[in-house]
Each structure stands twice: as structure tokens, then as C-alpha cells.
Amino acid sequence: MTISESTWLTFGASSEGLLLQEHHRPYTYFSDLSLDQQKPQMIAFIGEQTKSQVLRKTRFGCRPQKGIRGEIQLRIDFETISDPEPVFYADCELHNPSRPITIATQNLGDFTSRPLAFPRDFDTKFLAYQIYSKLISPFSTVICLFADDLGGMAGVLDIMATWLTSLPEAPTDLPISTYPKVLIFKDTGATPEWEDGATKKFLLALSKETAGRQGETPRKKELDVLLAKQFSGVHVLSLPILTSSQRNWTPLRERLLQESGDIQELRNHHRVAFSIRHFKAFFQMAIRHFCLNGDTSFSFIEASRASNPISEDFLVHLTSFLQNVDRKQLLNFAVPVIASALVFDSYPPGMHAFNPLLVFRKFFYQTCLKIDPYKYPQLTRGIETSFSQYAIAVVNSNKGELIHKNALSRFDKEWEKIYSNTTCFCCMARKPENTMSCRHTICDECTISIGEEVDSHAWTFLIPSCIFCGKTNSRKFSLKPRTAGVRSIIAEGGGIRGIIPLSFLKELEAAIGLPTNIHEHFDLAFGSSSGALVIMGLFVNKWSVDKCLTNFQEFSQLIFRKRVRFGRKFPALGYLSRVVEGILSIAADSRYSSANINNALQKTFGMDSSLFEADSGVKIGVIATTTDDCSTCIFTNYNGQETRSESCGYRIIRPEDKTKELFIWQAARASSAAPPYFRPFAGYQDGGLGGHNNPINLAIWEQDIIWNRSKKQPDIVVSLGTGFMQTTKEEAEENSRRISFFNSRCVPRLFASFLNFFVGESRWRELCNTLAPHVRDRYHRFNVEFLGSEPALDDIQVIPGLRQQVQWQASANNEVQQCADNLLACLFYIELDGVPIFDCNTFVCQARILCRLDPSSNGLQALAARLRNSRARFHLDFHRSVFAMDSDMLTDIEAGKPFSKDIIFRARSLTDPLDIKIDGIVSRPRSISNCPYVIETLIKDQGLDCAFGRRGIKRNNVFSNDRFPKRIRRVE
């Protein structure tokens, strides 16, 4: 079978069964059209030889075109190409082959194959007409049937009756007045004119045929109902003699354009005339719907939210908001706020301007009824009315963000009393992640939409004043780029042995070799017990590693101070002293005073700073357990996008009441309450008691919740241990033979099992057993083995020796340098400048390689110099590479601009993985962040597949065609 440049749909069979293939080549015709401004109208021509001759006579197309058997071809009328509503036409001969055409199934990028839910021996001609009626018809303004090509008027009668009786419901949810007109052409040799008599005769015959198939008495009313489900009218038209002069065909072309224009005008009136971008997106979604659910109607309104679905927690968030609103304020305050939020969510930049009333009824009406406190749905009616008003204002002005901000800020006094850490009141659709100076919160998507991107700081946003209360906001919100991977660091607990993780980080900083703080290299930081103190020092207080080392040692001296006995310190009395200390510890439920650790933590982290409000840019998790059942809990400075299963095995502590949030020092106190050293705090105790002293599994599970990673591997995981004892096989066998009577009893065995909860090395080895070999080098473990006895958790005298042991171990192997190499490579990530362009059997991709270090970071200029001096290169594939730094880029970075390397590459398919590697500054080429990266996933992560927009998409990176040769400037 010949595949032409205009081949759009092919229907046939393969070894997998019946297939429908959508070809991408026709879309390249639209290179000179405006994707968002022009609204196409499509005329479908169904026939064979006569149809092809009529197309030629009526001047559709720039040159003689001939349909191909078994295909639908999509072409453009070049006489209307510059019009606001250009004419497309579908040349349909899908019904033509008598048997399925065998077609290729391998996808090289120029087409997409979709299996049809029909057996291989299914009647393909019937299926072809199903495709016409359910796919082509809804997107057409006029459908032309050529009787001479379809078995005469009797054949057309059979086709129309089949269409009407095989679809019990309308194929779409478009208004009935916007359905296409059917023009039936018969060759009478007369001058083109509407034949009222022939039309009436045909409709009478059609009425009898459809009634007969349904076993009913023919009635005109019944036929009108059937016709109204698919068409806005049926007419029979005479064709001129095929050999007649061109002037006889001009009126026919004008009538076709007039009929099409009339339907298009109605579609504009009803807000269902789609732009070229939306036409393509809707058609592709309609194909998927037909192949999967061919018996159900296609909803254009629902399809527009396919990439931006309505929040499953919408009802929960609305209920949460209303709980904070006085009943007297429901209509004057709650109604406009809710309505504006729903419009803000429903009409992002790029969304088609559907009728607001239809949108509200489709998505929100039933939910609003559930929260309506009035017997008569007064609240719902009010929201519906306000929704329509706000939506019309947004559509007419294209200033959705400003309109929504004004709607919220009108009630600045009311907002001064309303706060929440569980609901973003800006969109009412998601949980908040960022806290402004006034303590009002907002989600990431709203932060991107409402906020201003800080100059030259990619993914750092500022909201100058609170959108609720209007107070000045000084906080900047640093978000992880959507296409960058996750860099995780985990520190386990171990009392004074927490000096070991800090000592390894000191070695890692030296291996990285950049004037940066360690918090600039990670996105997720988890810690338990003393590991939690390390994490919060580095990522909440943003201390340098050196400062954290100093403060950790001073902190240890303070909290592990001997208890004052009977109001005074007694001199050591040997055995008697230890007995007294034991009695006091039992009486006080701890070995050390809670006052000491409380005072030290309050001095370190402040008295009233909430962990959720911590301005970090890094997602932080502090592990604790409950005192009643030892279940694992996590105190966090985030909520996460996804909902955690109730059976996930742990809980995020996030009170509905914002005033009940634990302060930072309290979260640290709860996590470090290790028995018998310290008393529990507020019903919480040491995080290691739940089996997660090394919380590496919790961190990996949470990254999926936070960023919706769909189980994709992180860029790097750095696990920091606090020492372990290694027992050889021979020692284990010897110990089992020499086990004492006492140690064989149940209590000692239970105690030994309990201590195993705290062995972080065991959790690490269990994780390693689950890792595939190709991802193993992403995971790094730094720990020391104790050759003698294991230091006590409160033995501050061993701290210098532990630091020395770390230095020896770091110098004995290259594991630290390998980790540093990975961190350096992960500083770079890729962003596409636009949807890849299909050209010459491949997709052309224009992109940029960016850097996680901001221009304000001390490390960026040092990194740029290293890239230049080492002549580092980015390897795009096995054959192509580009220098990572040139003189112009270096000058820009020195002038305070961000790192940005432009690249262009080709891919045979969007399902191909992209694996960009860097060399020069690392010991061997290593993949940059999130690579290998499937191009299709990259497109989705950037939101470039969202033809109808979505909150949280950065749209400042406009794709430019000017960098491509003219021949490959194609429509997206």
C-alpha cells in the first residue's frame, strides 16, 4: 500500500488483529498556520472516482489529488489557508478495500497504531462507516456522499440507515445545531441546485428503512429524532456534467463553503469552534476513545481535562474551606471565592473557552450539592452563577490569574482568621506546599501560576504580597524542576555517633570541589534520631558541614550532661554512684534530663518555628514512633501530591488545625527521644523503634508521593550510617555453640531482636537485594565498621576517634569520589523548548541543558570554569557530542545569567530513551539528571502534551521555529 504525504488514517489487519493507524505526516501541512488563532472547518468527501473528479473540479488542493484505497487523507484548501477559519478536507476511501489491508505495525515515529476491539474477520466496510460516523463526522462541518461511487441512491440509503440505527446515542456532546450537514451528490447532468423533491423522496425512503430495521411503523417524527442525533440536515444535490467547463463548478464550490461556513458560525456561537491545536488534540483523543470504547459517546468537555483531571479530593478541600467560614458569610464570601477558584482551575492558559454553564454542570454541580447546607440548593446556584460570570471575564480578558487574585484579595479581612496546612484555598484542588510570611499557604501549581519567577533563577518564585490577606511576603519558593530527578540523602540515628554522617559529608564536600553548601545538592532529606538533628541543621538552618560538626559536638556536650542529684552534684562514688544514677533514671524514666535537650533544641531551632513553614527548598522528613503502638510517623515540611494508602505502614503527621503543628525543635525532640536516654515527648519517641532507624525505604517511597515519580529511580541516594559491628560466619558459628543458658532464654532473645531494629546496615542490605544491577551505582552507602566494642550512644569521648576513622576509610577507596561524580552530573538536567517536530521519518527535538545551581550560588562560576578548563562535553548519543561550555556562555554566567546549553537532536520515535552523559569533570561519562529519559515522558513531565493547559506549567519558554530549516518548520 502506498503511503502519501497526506495519509491520515489507515485501517487494516496485522498479526495482532484489526488496527487503526494515525499518521503524523498530514499535520506537517500546517506549518504556515497559526495553531492558536485559526479555527479550521473540515469537509469530508466520501466516495471514489467521482469524488476525486469533483475535488479536482472544485479546486480543493493546490494540485490534482487522487484518493488511495483504504485510506483517509487529510488535506488543506490552499485558497483559504490565510483565512481565520481555513478549510480542511478529508478524502475518505477507507471503505474501499474488500478485505483488510495488511499494514506494518512497527512504529518508527510517523504513525501511531491502535488495536480495535473487533475480530480479524469483522466486516471491515461496516467498520469503516463506523469510523466515518464516530470519528470523521463530529469534526466535520459538511459530509459529502457521492452516490455514483457508493452503489447509487440505494447504496447511500443503506449507509445512512446503518449510521442512524447503529448509534443509539449522539456520538458526542456537541450542541445538536452544530452537527454537520449531509450533502448527497448524484450525477444528473443538470445545473447544480437543491432538489427538494429528491430530498423528500430520499427522506421518506430513509424513514421506511430505519423503521423497518427497528421493527416500527415509519414516522417522520422518529426519523427527525434519529437525524438530530448526528446531523443538522440532509440534502440531495445534482452534480454538473463532469466534462463541463470550470464556471459550472464554481457555484458548487461556493455552496460547499457556504454550507460549511454556516455550521462553523453556529459552532462559534456555541463556543465549540476549535483552534488547530485543539482540533488535532481532540481528534487524537477521539481515536483513542473509539478504539477503547467505541459504543459510548465522546465528550469534548471531559476530553479537555484528560491531562488535567479534576482533583479526587475536591470535595474534601471544599468541605475544609467551608468549615472555616461562618454560615452568615456563605453567600457573600464563600460563594465568590469557591466560584473563582473553580474557574481558575477550569480555565488555565490554553484551555478552550467552553460554555461555562456546561463546564460547571459537567464537573462541579453534583459535588456542590453535597456541600450545600440549604434545603434549596442556594449555595450551589450561587456558585454556578458566579462561576459563569468569572469564566466569561477570564475568557474575554485572558487574565485569569489577575481576576482570581482580585477575587481573593477582596476579602482580606476574612482571610486574616483563616489558615490551613491541608488545603490550598487558592485552587481548592490540592494540598499546600509553600508558606508565605503571613503563614497563609499555597500549593506548588498555584505558586507557579500566581508567582513571579525570580530573574535568572529558574524554578524560584516570589509572590510579592499574599493573595489572601495582602500582607507583604518576603519568602522565595525554590521548586525542583519538573524534568530533574530526585537527589536523596538519608541519615540514620545513633546518638553521638551522628558525627559519622557529618564526617563523611565533610569528605564528600571536598570531593565535589565546589564552593557550595551541601543543601544545594539534594532535594529530599530524611533523618531519624540524631540523624534528624543532622538533617535539620544542614537543611533547615542551612548550616555548612563545618558549622554543623562544631554545633553537633557542643550539642552532645549539653544534652549528655550528668543529672544533678538532690539539688547538688555528688562526687563519684563508684558502684554506689551508678546505683543511684540507675534509680534516678528509672524514677525519671530517662538517664538524662529533658530540660537540657529541650533548651538546647530551642536555642538551635527557635522556640516557635513550625517545620511545615521551614523555608528550605528541600523536602524534609523527620522520623519518630508513637509511644502507644510504636507505629512509624514522619514530621515533614511538605504534604505531597499523591494520597498515601491507609495501609502503607506509616503516617504523615499533619494536623487539620494549623495551630497544632509541632515546632521544629519539638519534631527534633520527638525523633531523638531514645529510651532509656530521654523521656518520650508529646506521645512520640525515637524514630528507630519502628524499624526505620535507617529511613531509606521511607525516603524512596515518599519521593513517589511528593513528585508523582511513578516508581522511577532517583538520580542518587546517599545513605549515611552511624557504624556497625560485622560478625563473620566463623564467629557466628562459634557464638551459636557457646551460647549461655541465660542468653538462650526468651527475654535476652527478645532484647537482641529489639536491638536489631536499630541496625541501619541491615536495612541497607535489604534494599540492595531489590535493586537492579543497572541502577545500583545510583545508591551510595557511607558507614564505618567497629573493630572493637560498639561505642555507647552517649560516649562523647569517642567523637575524635570516629572522625579519624571516617577519614581513613574515605581515603582507602574511591566511593566518595564516585558519589561526588554522580552529584556533579546530576546538577544538569534537560528541558525541551517545545513539542518535537516530525520531519523526514524522525522527530527533531530542540532543547536546553540547564543547571540546578542558581546564578547567585557561589558554585556556578567555579563549575563553569571547570567545564571550560576540562573541555567537558555533553554526549547526546554514541556519535554526537557538544562542548558543555564556550566563551559566550562563560561570559554570560560571569554576568549573572544562568547556565543554558542549547542542543538539537533527532529521534526515530518518541518512545526512544534519551541518555545524555557528561564527561571532563567526572572520572568517567555519567548520565545527567533523570537520564535515561523516554522522550514521551519528558514531554508529559513538562506539560507539553497539555494542549488545553494545566496549572503549574511554565509557559515562558516559547518554542522558536527560526532555528530550524524552513522545510522542517512544522505544526506541533
From TrEMBL:
Example of a GO MF term: calcium-independent phospholipase A2 activity
The family database entries (InterPro entries) matched by this protein are listed as: Acyl_Trfase/lysoPLipase (IPR016035), PNPLA_dom (IPR002641)
Motif GXGXXG: which residue numbers? Answer: 493-498
- The portions of this protein that span the membrane are none
Q: Where is this motif: GXSXG?
A: 527-531
Q: Where is the PNPLA domain?
A: 489-700
GO BP terms in the entry = arachidonate metabolic process; glycerolipid metabolic process; lipid catabolic process
Alphabetically ordered keywords of this record:
Hydrolase, Lipid degradation, Lipid metabolism
Protein name as annotated: PNPLA domain-containing protein
State the organism named in the record: Sclerotinia nivalis
Is the Transit peptide keyword given for this protein? no
